């Protein structure tokens, strides 16, 4: 990745914290600052599309508490059923291990 040099003014206390963090992590102060700039850039990025698109093919309304609970419950039962089926196909499945 190509980088561009820039100059910024920083609070001396912040620079001391960066210096200590760089020493502890074994990286350069510049790397800590680059990571901070990247986090700030991503936090302030304006995305081309909204996070929640109207193209989602859901029920067309916000789920009620019970509907959400039922959907999660159904999904977890489906996932648990898939895991149980996977276990039964392995040799020794269904028997407790020595650590139980």
UniProtKB/TrEMBL annotation:
Biological-process GO terms, alphabetical: regulation of DNA-templated transcription
Annotated region described as Disordered, given as residue ranges: 62-100
Pfam families: RHH_1 (PF01402)
Domain Ribbon-helix-helix protein CopG: 4-37
InterPro entries: CopG (IPR002145)
Superkingdom, natural source: Bacteria
Basic and acidic residues bias spans: 62-72
Descriptive protein name: Ribbon-helix-helix protein CopG domain-containing protein
UniProt source species: Streptomyces xiamenensis
């Amino acid at each position: 990745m190509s980088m561009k040099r820039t100059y910024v003014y920083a609070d001396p206390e912040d620079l001391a914290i960066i210096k200590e963090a760089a020493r502890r992590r074994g990286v350069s102060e510049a790397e800590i600052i680059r990571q901070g700039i990247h986090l700030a850039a991503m936090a302030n990025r304006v995305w081309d599309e909204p996070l929640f698109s109207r193209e989602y093919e859901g029920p067309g309304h916000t789920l009620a508490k019970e509907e959400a609970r039922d959907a999660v419950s159904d999904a977890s039962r489906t996932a648990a059923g898939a895991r149980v089926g996977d276990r039964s196909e392995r040799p020794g499945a269904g028997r407790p291990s020595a650590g139980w």
